[in-house]
Amino acid sequence: MEKNLILHVNGKEHTVTVDPATPLLYVLRNQLEFNGPKYGCGIEVCGACMVLMDGVAAPSCRIPVEAMEGRKITTLEGLTRSDGSLHPVQKAFVKEQAAQCGYCLNGMVMATVALLNENKKPDEAAIRAGLDRNLCRCGTHTRIIKAVQTAAKDS
Amino acid sequence: MKSLTFNPQQSRRKFINSLGCLTIGFSLARPSWASAENSLLEDTLPGSLRRTPRVDAWLEILGDGRVRVLVGKMELGQGVRTAIGMVAAEELDLNLDQVEVHLAETGRTPNEGYTAGSGSMENSAMSVRYAAAFARQKLLAIAAKRWNKDPETLRMVNGKVSANGSKEAFTFAQLLDGSQIQDEVKLPVKLKPAAEYRYIGKAIPRTDIEPMVRGEAVYVQDLRLPGMVHARVVRPPAYEAKLESFDTGSFNSPGLLKVVRDGSFLAVVAADEYQAIQAQERAREHSRWSSTQTLPADRDLNSYIRKLPAKSQTVKNQGNTTPLDQPDPRSLKASYFKPYHMHGSIGPSCAVALYEKGMLHVWSHTQGMYPLRDAIAKMLKMDLEKVHLIGVPGSGCYGHNGADDVATDAALIAMAYPDKPVRVQWMREEENAWEPYGSAMCMDAEARLDETGKISHWRYAVWSDSHSSRPGGNPNNLLAARHLAEPFAIPGARYSGGGYRNSEPYYEIPNLKIDAHIFEGPLRVSSLRSLGAYANIFAIESFMDELAVLAKRDPLEFRLAHSTDERAIAVIKKLQSMIQKVSTGPDEGLGVAFSRYKNSASYCAVAAKVAVDKVSGTVRVQRIWAVIDAGETVNLDGIINQTEGGMIQSASWTLNEEVKYDQEHISSRDWTSYPIMRYSEVPLVEVAVIQHLELDPLGGGEAAQGPTSAAITNAIYRAGGKRIRHLPVRPEEVAG
Questions:
Q1: Domain containing residue A117: CATH number
Q2: Which residue of A40, B581, B639, B726 has the fewest C-beta atoms within 10 A of its own C-beta?
């Protein structure tokens, strides 16, 4: 049973007609065609699907899209400035070459943005805590820590 | 010029020097060496190039001044796309942004088999190097003829050829009048000397990371084709379970477009992805399966696999090891075990397939585009030309994961639901439960020291299942093919070499016997990064550590005492200097290990510092250092990135991972039941590279897996006195 819902994503309003129980991730990827949040586990334990919900980094793979009406959603794409330039966190990940396969990168970047909003100069322990919900299988962790530190410095 | 006295072990290519009786191995890339010797050297081109010798199979000259490189390899996160671009840009003197790399696609790129075994630099990059260098020669020759000048007086800069002192310049496309270079690459080919490199050997940023941070469509998971529908497969509850009943007529689910059933292969198709997921769950409830097989869940896996019927072979027999049968105070014996490990890709496998106008197109992240195409074509009884596989990167796979199987699923469903692209996304539990694992293995080691404290006798046995069930053109290796009404049975003949990879220690030992026993185990297996090397090096390097203690020697000095290969000695010595100032407090330990991958590829020495909680048995790996010699490193940062990654991945395998199963099937279905390392646990890692631009590239992606494991367990010993021989490391074994 479909419903019309209005979602606020990356500063714009989108109307979607979907089953309101559909997890936000699928609506973002399929109806709205965003690539940022990715399917990793479907049960909120890997972080690949993270978006910002009112500035807080959260998984999108389980929460029903209906619950997201009225909330401000930011995806990875939404970090890029309107003139095409990169957000300091995006820039830092490129500078530090903090990716191997890059699949976890979305979650890592979104979690980093949220972390730096809370804590402008996190130490290593705070970075680890801030990214603990994000899994990486390629072992890029050390570079990602460097990217967070670079982003903190350049913000 | 660096010293060029190599020992034959150092290079992969062997030549007969006609001026002497020496068999020397060295790199092809040194024209100055060749001219100095002036010898009749028989040369061979790299494997992939020999197979596909035409230049235009590898390089397309574009009208806008750029060059497109076609390779049969896949981007797995190892940065191969950037590295190959660098090689072409180097030989053709292009800017890096003037080169684009087109990944494996059947009928479009060369067939380079699999992106595996750390072979991409040796094969693919070297093929591109020769093709590009040959193209350069050809382009200069054409320009020389046009201007009636000596090619040596011409310049090639950023895609344009000009004569010295003249302003007139031609682009490559102009020189070729818009056509391509159809010549076959033939020796001699003049390669750019290492001293003139602009890019090779430097840390060059990858071109694909910025698109990733921007959220551009990068992965197979991001494909959105017009009219695309979503499908899910209802997997059996066990390997051999059969679908007994599914009433298609009475099955209903919102948005359901089609049910596909062929024997025990059952899939559902819907327009919306979430509808497909719901249909999958409902269909699972609606279906009845029978199963006769049980997994040996109640048995200790270590003793179970030792008792399985096995094919035995002696891998090496040198001197006489029977004295080991006599007890001796300078002898030591130990047994080691490694469980099944999962690839554990963060992004479960995905594929899109479209069957229209008699052609089947499949978008896949498989490591082997052509072998998969062949296997799928055979399964469907189609001509090879009617099956088209397009490589699109997926999430890191680290070997043969679910990529080939999901492509098979998509192909089968597309054939039953033609004219619309069908996207199949494996769910997390499917990937975990059905991917082929890295085999469980047991290793027995025995050795004796002589009066000087050197190893005189060494005996080793390894038990392992196969390390490859890759499609290889054979539908019997495709998961869904086994479940069809007319099934393709699991093949009997299996690749056994992987099990004894690195079973021979890379040390000077006069009396040596190595036996391998290959069994058919209870779980599905295939290639996982480094194959048998991880377990063999874990055992050998743990055992070397135990022998070093027996010999009362520093563990690195003990290894050096048994090493004659200069490059092995160099990485070990460099590691020594890296960890010289590392101090350890109470309950902390520093452990070391070394190996040469395949005894012929990259050299890697690793040190790990751990902290042990003697009460709880928790082990925290704080830091890991590695030194790697991978010969010529095309992209310096690529090698560092891959080695860092291998160290962390190996640490996770060693401390946290084992595939669990019950009587019916795999129970490690998610990240809670198979906990790969999180940020709270991962060590910081540091890599030093010993570069040899004058040597062959050795491919470094798998070099760190083995030594990292032993470095960690050796560190645990030195932190608390407990020898860990059974992986994963268990707190109860570490605690007091």
A1: 1.10.150.120
A2: B581
Examine the pLDDT at A12 and tell me if it is beyond 90. yes
Tokens 């102009």 belong to B174
What was the ipTM of the complex prediction?
A: 0.98
Distance from CA of B227 to the nearest CA of A (A): 12
pLDDT of residue B493: 62
Amino acid identity for residue B659 in this structure = V
CATH number for position A18:
3.10.20.30
CB burial class (10 A; 0-12, 13-18, 19+) of residue B33? middle
Residue B106 has pLDDT above 50, yes or no: yes
Q: Report whether the peptide linkage leading into residue A23 is cis, meaning its omega lies within 30 degrees of zero.
A: no
Contacts of A42 in chain B (CB under 8 A): 427-428
Contact state of A100 with B221 under an 8 Å Cβ cutoff? no
Q: Is residue A53 part of a domain?
A: yes
B354 lies in the same domain as B461:
no
Chain B partners of A21 at a C-beta cutoff of 8 Å?
274
User: Is residue A108 domain-resident?
Assistant: yes
- Residue A133 C-alpha, separation from nearest chain B C-alpha, in angstroms: 8
CA distance A43 to chain B (A): 9
Rg value, chain B, Cα:
27
Task: Please tell me the distance from the alpha carbon of residue B501 to that of residue B467, in angstroms, as a whole number.
Answer: 10
Residue B666 lies in a domain: yes
User: Which site among B216, B346, B705 would you substitute to test the A interface, given the most A Cβ atoms closer than 10 Å to its Cβ?
Assistant: B346
B580: exposed, middle or buried (Cβ count in 10 Å: 0-12, 13-18, 19+):
exposed
Stated as kind and residue range, the H or E segment containing B549 is helix B533-550
Q: Does the distance separating the beta carbons of A103 and B346 come in below 8 Å?
A: yes
Q: Are residues B310 and B418 in the same domain?
A: no
Q: Is the pLDDT of residue B2 over 60?
A: no
Count how many residues are written for chain B: 736
**What is the nearest CA distance from B30 to chain A, expressed in angstroms?**
32
Same domain (yes/no): B156, B286: no
Query: pLDDT of B625-665, one tens digit each?
Result: 999 999 999 999 999 999 999 999 999 999 999 999 999 99
Binary contact (A99, B425; C-beta < 8 A): no
Instruction: Give B79's contacts in chain A (Cβ within 8 Å).
Output: 100
Q: Are residues B633 and B668 in the same domain?
A: yes
Global pTM value: 0.93
pLDDT digits (tens, 9 = 90+) for B380-414: 999 999 999 999 999 999 999 999 999 999 999 99
Distance, CA of B312 to chain centre: 26
Domain boundary among A25, A52, A78: A78
Establish if B240 belongs to a structural domain: yes
Query: In chain B, which residue's Cα lies nearest the Cα of A101?
Result: B77
Give the total number of structural domains in chain B.
Answer: 3
A33 min Cα distance to partner chain B (Å): 8
Q: Which domain, by its residues, includes A112?
A: 88-154
Tell if the CB–CB gap between B206 and A141 is shorter than 8 Å.
no
- Range with the lowest mean pLDDT among B116-125, B216-225, B600-609? B116-125
Q: Do B679 and A134 touch (CB under 8 A)?
A: yes
CB-based burial label for B84 (10 Å; 0-12, 13-18, 19+): buried
Among A3, A63, A97, most B C-beta atoms within 10 A, so best to mutate, is A97
At B248-299, the pLDDT tens digits run: 999 999 999 999 999 999 999 999 999 999 999 999 999 999 987 789 999 9
pLDDT tens digit sequence for B457-469: 999 999 999 999 8
**How many residues does this entry show for chain A?**
155
Mean pLDDT score, B205-233 = 97
Residue B41 covered by a domain: no
H helix or E strand, kind and range, residue A127: helix A124-130
